[in-house]
Design goal:
7-stranded mixed sheet; alpha/beta; methyltransferase; 188 residues; 7 strands; 16S rRNA (Guanine(966)-N(2))-methyltransferase RsmD; Rossmann fold; transferase; single chain
Length: 188
């Protein structure tokens, strides 16, 4: 697994051992970040949340492509250690916060994120549980873009009325669902 583009292009990332973590494919990650690079809100200078972070590849790709900060939420001990190792390897320690927390029970956010990336285990339903929790704890900025990766045939619906699906893309075994949070009132 490598960083696909940006200032760290080609850097090899470590992945947790075993079957507990399923990294987003390079193809899906490249497509996702090509979309984010031309969308709203802009990825450039954004604070990005990588929930269910695994290896941290999504947040690290965001940093490579110009995001200002990335926060990582991960509960698995070996994945948590791998994120730390990948962050050190890329030399982006000052741009990240790595929290060993469950995305369905997150701590209060230090700052809201304009882009939220979620890659929970397939067919777990954890994205639907995490979205309201992240919103309640201030992780999701008003007008944020939330991207959830699910299995290609997995059912998904937004658990929040003002978090609307605006696009979906399928890449092999993965489906990326793009949601926009639209609310005048902020939870932060």
């Amino acid at each position: 697994m490598r960083i696909v583009a940006g200032r760290h292009k080609g850097r090899v990332l470590l992945a947790p051992e075993g079957q507990a973590t399923r990294p987003t494919s390079d193809r899906a990650r490249e497509a996702l970040f090509n979309i984010l690079g031309h969308g709203e809100p802009p990825l450039q200078d954004a604070h990005v949340l990588d929930a269910f972070a695994g290896s941290g590849a999504l947040g690290l790709e965001a940093l490579s492509r110009g995001a200002a900060r990335a926060s990582f939420l991960e509960t698995d001990g070996s994945a948590f250690a791998v994120i730390h190792a990948n962050v050190r390897k890329m030399g982006v320690d000052k741009q990240v916060s790595i929290l060993r927390n469950d995305a369905t029970k997150p701590p209060k956010a230090p700052a809201p994120c304009r882009i939220v990336l979620m890659d929970p285990p397939y067919k777990s339903g954890l994205a639907q549980a995490a979205l309201p929790a992240l919103l309640a704890q201030g992780w999701v900025a008003p007008d944020a873009l939330v991207v959830v990766e699910v299995a290609a045939g997995e059912p998904f619906s937004s658990p929040i009325g003002n978090l609307s699906i605006v696009d979906e893309r399928k890449y092999g075994a993965a489906r990326l669902i793009f949601l926009r949070f639209t609310s005048e009132a902020s939870c932060v």
